Amino acid sequence: MILTGVEILSDDNRSVVIFEERRGIIYKGINSSKKKVVRYRVDNDDMAVILKRCDYAMELPAQKSLYLIELKGEDLRKAASQILSTLDHFKTVLEQYKIHARVVCSRTPRPDLVSTQVVKLKKTVAISGGDFKSASGRLEEGI
Q1: Per-residue pLDDT tens for 44-101?
Q2: Residue 58, in any domain of the structure
Q3: Residue 134 lies inside a defined structural domain of this protein
Q4: Which end of the chain is more exposed for a tag (fewer CB within 10 A), N or C?
Q5: 1: in domain
Q6: pTM: predicted TM-score of the whole model, two decimal places
Q7: Beta-bridge partners for 59
Q8: What is the count of structural domains for the chain?
């Protein structure tokens, strides 16, 4: 388990990994090969006092991959900022990890220019070999 000081929600090899908010915003990872997955709640009350972090993280230890997950209203810029803040907080322990950023908004954000925070986040995760994905309402993918 790579992240310390955060709540561990589960540590197992479940076939479906779900993170969900009350507003019906869902991230669903399909773990068809039953890899070990550690689920974290990152933005707990202690962290919220210090600085806003992303909501959840999902680690695949054998693959050295970490998914940072933000379930948000419609502010993609703020979601990207929260993931960047989380990356900055844990940067020393994540150096050898492939980072994937996931944002699920309650509705599609208003079309406008891509914010500097989103551009920076895309570049940061790309350097680690990871990627950025966003969706409206629900994001489902194989992990």
Answers
A1: 655 455 568 899 999 999 999 999 999 987 888 999 999 999 999 899 999 999 999 9
A2: yes
A3: yes
A4: N
A5: no
A6: 0.92
A7: 38, 66
A8: 1
- The rounded radius of gyration (Å) of the Cα atoms in the chain is 14
Task: Answer whether residue 2 is part of any domain.
Answer: no
Distance CA 107, CA 25 (A): 9
Closest by CA position to 125, among listed 83, 90, 92, 93: 83
Q: How far apart are CA 44 and CA 50, in angstroms?
A: 10
Three-state DSSP state, 62? helix
Looking at residue 101, its amino acid is A
Report whether 83 contacts 103 (CB < 8 A).
yes
Give the domain range for residue 107. 7-142
- 72: tokens are 């948000």
**What are the strands, taking DSSP E only, across 31-94?**
37-41, 56-60, 65-72
Kind and range of the H or E element at 20? Answer: strand 16-20
- Paired tokens of 93: 């322990």
